[in-house]
Amino acid sequence: MAAAAVASATTIEADAFETYRELLALLDERGYPGLQRVWNYVPRINEDQRGVERYKHFNVGRARGFEERFGETAERHFSAASAVGTVGDTLIVCFAAGREPGTHLENPRQISAHRYLPDYGPRSRLLRPRYLRAGELGAGALPVGHGERRRPRDEAPRRPARPT
Q1: Among 7-11, 62-66, 80-84, whose mean pLDDT is lowest?
Q2: Integer Cα distance of 74 and 16 in angstroms
Q3: Fold of 2-148
Q4: Are 4 and 19 in contact (CB under 8 A)?
């Protein structure tokens, strides 16, 4: 487990991109390519930056870091993650990594965060549930139906009955 801190000199998107690019390179270099869990502390997470919430800019930068490193297979390398707001200008990223990748677990009643519609920002969040050896389950997901394009009421899909 380790942490990185970056005092913002530019934008949160640039900070996130640089931090994740360096983090992913470091993990490979040290022989721990299996990113297991990430805790992001994003300065002023809900403030606007050029008319868009800083959290959304953070996600764009983070996505760019993964895509630069892994290309089209980036999704396979997402880890369980969270992001909370902090004061000040320093982006803090704490993480746990292993020599082997974790096992992804998905809840079929939720839409994975990395598959959200564009309504949630210019880039989907890269938070993926992942089972950790210690039994921790992290997730960032929406209930099924939230954010989906709706059909007229009479054509709405039927939900299966709950088992008794």
Answers
A1: 7-11
A2: 16
A3: hypothetical protein PF0899 fold (3.30.2320)
A4: yes
